[in-house]
Design goal:
Elements: E1 6-9, E2 17-20, E3 32-37, E4 39-43, E5 52-56, H1 67-79, E6 83-88, H2 100-114, E7 122-127, H3 129-136, E8 155-159, H4 182-190, E9 204-209, H5 218-229, E10 234-239, H6 258-268
Parallel strand pairs: 5-6, 5-7, 7-8, 8-9, 9-10
Antiparallel strand pairs: 1-4, 2-3, 4-6
Length: about 270
Amino acid sequence: MLAADLVWPLRDADAGAFTLEDDTAAPEQTVVTAVDRPVLLGYAPQASNGRAMLILGGGGYTALMAGREGVQVARWLTALGYHAFVLVHRFPHAGTGPSAPLDDARDAMRMIRASCLAPLGLGVVGLSSGGHLAACLLAAYPAAWGATDTQRPDVLVVGYAPLSTNAKGRTIIPDKPPLPPVEKQALYDALQPDAQMLADPPPTFIVYAANDPVVPVINAHRLHDALMAAGGSAELHIFADAPHGFALDTPDLPVSLWPRLCEAWLRQVGFL
């Protein structure tokens, strides 16, 4: 189960509705396999620092690692004084279209800002596909999807995210086939944050593994270079040896130090 201090349905729904892979799994190991209606799960700190973080977990847009890349991250952030919010967003498929995850993330940001729980700022932490989604908040919203207001975080943390190597014409694997379902591939094709970065992006912390077998490390360099070219600042950490999806639970590897490095960076940029 996914217990939380606050449960906020999105998109004018009476309640969020999603399916878990295992109803008996501990919160920190929960996996969401389907989402009918998105929901925002809030976790409160003992003493607030006046800021909030929206957490976007991975799962390849076909599942959501709401435990390892959501609840565990929320516990880390609440210990630092942030209000932490885990987004259980819809997946891109025939029933939702490709824009659903981004629309839910933007709605979540609007809701958090309106709550007055983060008067000093709102950041976003995104891991794996959630990192792609987080970076999309810094890019131009596709005109073909309709006009919306801009929702940009004050700081951004991105880990092992497929920024654009899944997009048609930008893969590094020759003749890489499209990813199913077609709406997921359409999302990656339409939103390539490194190629569509808006000017003056917020400070960004980037962490990847050089030998990631799932997400090529070139994604980290593409994001870093795009941020710098757009007038932003970026802290880039690439660990030589770490598994994809390292999150917060690789205690025996050097990559386990990344949360401490991120905390130091958050202090340096004035967000902690």
